[in-house]
Amino acid sequence: MSSISENVNDRLSMLPEDIHSRILSLMPTKFAVRTSVLSKRWRYTWTSVTNLDFDYTRYVRSNEKIIKKFVDGNEEKFKTFVDRVLKFCKTSHVKLFRLHISSYGVRRSSISNWIDKAVRLNVRELDICVIQHEVPLSVFTCKTLTNLRLELSACDFGGWEFPSTIYLPCLKTLDIVGCNNPLAIHGCPVLESLSLEVSCNAEEDFVLNIPTLKRLKVLCRSDSINDNSKVVLRVPKLEYLFLDGVLSSLFEMEDMSCLVGASIAFWHSRFDFLWTDLLNQLRGVQNLSIENFPFTSPLPIFPNMKQLELNSTWQSRQITQFLESCPELKTFCVDFVDWRDFKPEEPKLIPACMLTNLTNIKFSKCDGDASDIEFLEYMLGNAHVLKTVTVFAHENLLIEEDPWFCTQVLKFPRASPHCEIHFRTRKLPPPQELEYDDSDETEAFY
């Protein structure tokens, strides 16, 4: 019996070394190192990992968002740990090097040395989030790098600068935060995905000319974008566009024929005409998500629109305006609705998509008030080819504690005889806190 038990318990150790390396590479480095205490055979197994993940941060979940907090106290111990890991690591090709530090106590010189070491290990993916105003120049000439994320936050420096010389021949994904001069992006001949912050001034437009780009996310900063500047996008292969921040500048888009989806989440706009101009340039999009829509000006027709998502709270006239502008719409998703001012029109004025194409409706944040009931009654009574309506309510609200709402909705007349109504609860994750664990077990291999 004991021999059978020993064989079962030893099956993991009997796996090939490359399998051990893959398993340990899937976990944070501090946990991979702890396996050195299992047995003599496992003492140096972790040194062959292809992913190096160092995290000295604390995260707190609050209101469905993750907030990063500063931590202090064990910086020297963390530094010693990272130094020794890089010293004993025997791999010559690192797939991922992740370094997240939210403490001022870790020396900038140490951070630069660690990143430079990763470059010399032929790293493919770099994910750097540190309190630093610069990184080694070797990062910007790394021939093996395919993915790069840089978030350099330093309150005493304000922002950081791209070097004048960049050559990243294999880079496909670039995510930069806090950079003062994103115009310096160049030397990336195969770049496909880009995320960056944009700020312009009256003297110079922001021009992005990347013919290989397929995915673009732009955060427009409010501190320096102004009425006289433009954001010029020359990205003929772009498929997905994400815009966030403050809309204070005109957008000029050249050849957006490949664009499939766009997401717009501007929390402020100085002038309605900026929205009008932007939406006119997105007329050919198939999927559109919009948040914080501020005006009621006439909308362009979106002839190819198949899916529309309206986040935040929307008034009845805004919803019907969008439905009228999307004759081919099949899927409609909406968060909160304000249907109090809705005035029923003649049946002939029902949006065309509701008569011929609209098959799916998703109501994400239903509270069950009179406005919600009137909205659902209108959609069910006028969407002639509707197949599915899914209503998401707050946890235990309406569905379990107040079934009257569900009963009322199920009684509404349906223009489509094939329509099904589904009720779901929208559960929020419990608050939790994650932080760096500096257990002494990480020193077992020394």
Poorly predicted parts: 1-8, 60-71, 431-436, 439-446
- Mean pLDDT level: 80
Based on the structure, what is the oligomeric state of the protein chains? single chain
What structural class should be given to the helix and strand makeup? Answer: alpha/beta
Helix content: 10-25%
Main β-sheet: number of strands, strand sense, barrel status? 15 strands, parallel
Proportion of beta-strand residues: 25-35%
Number of helices: 10
In the sheet with the most strands, the strands line up as: 1-4-5-6-7-8-10-12-14-15-16-17-18-19-20
Given the C-alpha coordinates, what overall shape results?
A: globular
Work out the number of β strands.
21
Cα distance spanning the termini: 36 Å
Instruction: Please compute the radius of gyration using only Cα atoms.
Output: 27 Å
Task: Tell me what the structure shows.
- This protein is of the alpha/beta class and 446 residues long.
- Among the domains are: 33-191; 305-437, no CATH class.
- It has ten helices and 21 strands.
- It has helices at 2-9, 17-25, 29-34, 75-88, 108-120, 272-280, 316-325, 352-356, 370-382, 404-410, and strands at residues 51-56, 58-62, 65-69, 96-101, 125-130, 147-152, 173-177, 193-198, 206-209, 215-220, 230-234, 240-247, 250-254, 261-269, 287-291, 307-315, 331-338, 360-366, 388-394, 420-426, 433-435.
- It has a 15-stranded parallel beta sheet. Strands 3-2-21 form a three-stranded antiparallel beta sheet, with no helix packed on it. The protein has a three-stranded parallel beta sheet with strand order 9-11-13.
- Strand 2 (58-62) and strand 3 form a beta hairpin.
- It is globular and about 75 Å long.
- The protein starts with a helix and ends in an 11-residue tail after the last strand.
- The relative contact order is 0.07.
- It holds the Pfam family LRR_At5g56370.
- InterPro entries: F-box-like_dom_sf (IPR036047), F-box_AtFBL13-like (IPR053781), F-box_dom (IPR001810), FBD (IPR006566), FBL13/AtMIF1-like (IPR050232), LRR_dom_sf (IPR032675), LRR_FXL15/At3g58940/PEG3-like (IPR055411).
- This is FBD domain-containing protein.
- Residues 352-424 form the FBD domain.
